[in-house]
Amino acid sequence: MRAVELFAGAGGLGVGVSRAGFAPVAVLERDRYCCDTIRENRDRGLDPLVHWPLVQGDVRDFGFESLGGGMDLVSGGPPCQPFSLGGKHRGRLDGRDMFPQAIRAVRELRPRAFLFENVKGLTRRAFANYFEYIRLQLAYPECVRRADEGWGDHLARLERRHARGPADDLAYRVVARVLNAADFGVPQRRERVFIVGFRADLGVEWTFPRPTHSRRALLWSQWRSGEYWESHGLPRPGRAPDGRLADAVERLRTKPPAAPWRTVRDALSGLPDPEWEPEAASRHRNHRFQPGARSYPGHTGSPHDEPAKTLKAGDHGVPGGENMLRRPDGAVRYFSVRESARLQTFPDGFLFHGSWTETMRQLGNAVPVALAEVVAASIRERLEECRGNGR
Q1: How far is CA 134 from CA 91, 92, 175, 230, 351, in A?
Q2: Which are the catalytic amino acids?
Q3: What would the CATH number be for the domain defined by 2-211+367-388?
Q4: What are 162-216's pLDDT values in tens digits?
Q5: How far apart (Å, rounded) are the C-alpha atoms in residues 221 and 354?
Q6: What angle separates helix 99-109 from helix 128-139, to the nearest 10 degrees?
Q7: Domain extents for the chain?
Q8: Longest Cα pair distance anywhere in the chain, in angstroms?
Q9: What three-state secondary structure class fits 361?
Q10: How far apart are CA 365 and CA 224, in angstroms?
């Protein structure tokens, strides 16, 4: 199935989409370090990047008509800084807001479906009207804002178009939901909003995939069955959990049906510790000790036996904050690039270009590969059903 990837970054969303069976006819990214990362992996023959037609440049200068018709999917993660808690919260006033370009791509390519990802902050109350504005523009991409029209007036016109119901213009059935990556087998508690649309003429009814993993199942495997500790060759902790964790364990009466959340220990299994085993760690690419980590209020690192906290991009200097491992004695160290890549479910053969700060920025901005694949595979399944039914 033919696809276009916008705002590709280091490729997390794109790798997941490609693994789900979509073949990109263009992969667009402007950042030179991200492009270097994609190019190196492509040139090394790493699947699926080996087949990626990378276009380095500003999406605002790209003419989508050059790609032809018959597009199945447009996907991408428009820059999130306008809506992130770490950004300046300027939303539509921020020049980095690229949703207008995502909407233009949908309007000009008329794909059968689209998939966009952004930070959970986009759903905050402060952005509620603008989020609805984005959703309605994606639902009716040919209802374009006029040169003399404010965005509020445009929103009102979109609402009137929506109230009219079915018509002959290009329209999409749009759904959005905040997903926690940990609920889909990613060893990281990372909440992001996903926006998915199917072209209305396809008549698709679709909902987001059900979670496959749960915190309750992790607690069961740790504190009821002990399977978690056995799988890592560790003795079961002698002391039972306390506080709210003890209450949560006490409420577990039967084994939960989902798989356990994956933890930092699960993700880093088989990797030598770059601080304690530097020689062994040096045999793994992108895996060296980075000094200087420190813990402070609100940035205390991730313990071994829980999913990692959300990896962040470091827009205010050295990324670190919570991009750290917290040892049982309370000491902290930064995750290496390779460890961070595992927490984002990139394959071990995937290499990153740039300084440590730059590569951590790429990883902090990425969509976990495994989560992208789950959502994209569900979209492809529905599109294949449509194709089988002649739609």
Answers
A1: 11, 10, 12, 48, 34
A2: 80
A3: 3.40.50.150
A4: 999 888 899 999 999 999 999 999 999 999 999 999 999 999 999 999 999 999 9
A5: 39
A6: 10
A7: 2-211+367-388, 214-257
A8: 69
A9: helix
A10: 36
Written as six digits, the tokens of 320 are 């670190």
CB 117, CB 194: distance < 8 Å: yes
Task: Please give the Cα distance from 305 to 289 (Å, whole number).
Answer: 21
Contacting residues for 185 by C-beta, under 8 A, at least 6 apart: 212, 213, 259, 262, 345, 370
Q: What is the DSSP string of 57-78?
A: S-GGG--GGGG-S---EEEE--
**Two structure tokens written together for 32:** 């030179």
Look at the block and give the residue holding tokens 């060893």: 187
Q: What angle do CA 377, 64, 69 make, to 5 degrees?
A: 65
Q: Are 186 and 262 in contact (CB under 8 A)?
A: yes
CA distance 137 to 131: 10
Query: Does pLDDT of 322 surpass 80?
Result: no
CA separation for the pair 226, 338 (Å, rounded): 29
> 359 near 337, Cβ under 8 Å?
yes
Beta strands 54-56 and 73-76: pairing type? Answer: unpaired
**Beta strands 2-6 and 23-29: pairing type?**
parallel
Q: Residue type at 384?
A: E
Quote the CA–CA distance of 75 and 22 in Å, as a whole number. Answer: 10
What is the predicted pLDDT for the residue at 247? 83
Nearest to 48 by CA among 363, 358, 372, 340: 372
- Asked if pLDDT for residue 141 goes beyond 80, the answer is yes
> For the residues of 145-209, what is the DSSP string, one character each?
PPTT--HHHHHHHHHHHHHH---SS--EEEEEEEEEGGGGT-SB--EEEEEEEEEGGG-----PP
- Residues 50 and 382: their CA atoms lie apart, in Å, by 27
Residue 158: name the closest of 146, 175, 176 by CA.
146
User: Can you give the length of the chain in residues?
Assistant: 391
